[in-house]
Amino acid sequence: MRPDPHPYYHQAKFLTSCAQLLQLPPDQGAEVAFVGRSKAGKSSALNAITGQRQLARVAKLPGRTQLINLFTLDPIRRLADLPGYGYARVSDAMQRHWQNLIEGYLQRRHCLQGLVLVMDIRHALTAQDQQLLGWAAERGLPAHALLTKADKLSFGAAKNTLLQVTKELAGTSVTAQIFSATSYQGVAELHQQMDTWLGRFKR
Prior knowledge:
By secondary structure, the chain is α/β, with parallel strands linked by helices. Helices cover 32% and strands 22% of the residues.
């Protein structure tokens, strides 16, 4: 059953798309970024947490998110959808461009308050995922691993995968959770994490 959308996140609106870092809006306020391998369920996760079916376009083919897409939540807070990585059917030049774009954004965007690393629960913590978490750690950026498509596994198998990922992340500050955009499992938990990063309750 689809829950009622969270009134705050439901108001998310598309702001702009950026092919280069220089095209980003002023580095002010607070942003939370979503990043992950192609077809990990990043766009579906964004749609689920905002309660909107088409806020982020869900492509039938991987590798379609080639830009940084920004969505406003209020005048000072935004969500950022970063290009998916790891899709083999694009040129080496495009792969390098995506990597430089993601790395540059993570290292230089001062208003970035947290990173949601989206990964298919059936293919969690690849070498590229680990590299991304390394970039976040170098900057001291909080990160949260979102194990999507949990509905593809039994409850026990999903819990075991979460336990394994948590063990692999031991010694780091990275948190992790199970998530399903289909059943909306974990949406409220992710909202709480994002509330903390975005400082929604600070006065």
